[in-house]
Amino acid sequence: MLKFYNTLTRKKEVFKPISEDEVTFYHCGPTVYWTQHIGNMRGVVMNDLIVRTLEYLGYKVKLARNYTDVGHLTSDEDEGEDKLEKGAKREGKTPQQIADKYLKIFERDVTALNTRPADIKPRATDNIKEIIGMIRILLDKGYAYQTDLAIYFTVLKAKDYTKLSGQNLAKNIAEAGKGEASDPDKKNPADFALWFFKTGKHKNAMQTWESPWGKGFPGWHIECSAMAKKYLGDTVDIHMGGIEHAPVHHTNEIAQSEAANGVKFVNYWLHNEHLLANDVKMAKSAGTAYSLAEVKAKKYEPLALRYFFLSAHYRSKQNFSWEALAAAAASLKKMQNKIRELKETVKLSAEKIEATGINEHYRGQFIAAIEDDNNIPQALAVLWETLKDDKLTADETLATVFDFDSVLGLELTKVKLDKTAVPKKIQALIDNRQKFRDVGDFAEADKIREKIEQLGYEIKDTPNGVVVNK
Ligand code: AMP
Ligand code: ZN
Question: Which residues' Cβ are closer than 6 Å to ligand 1?
Answer without folding.
Answer: 28, 30-31, 39-40, 42-43, 241-242, 244-245, 274-275, 281-283
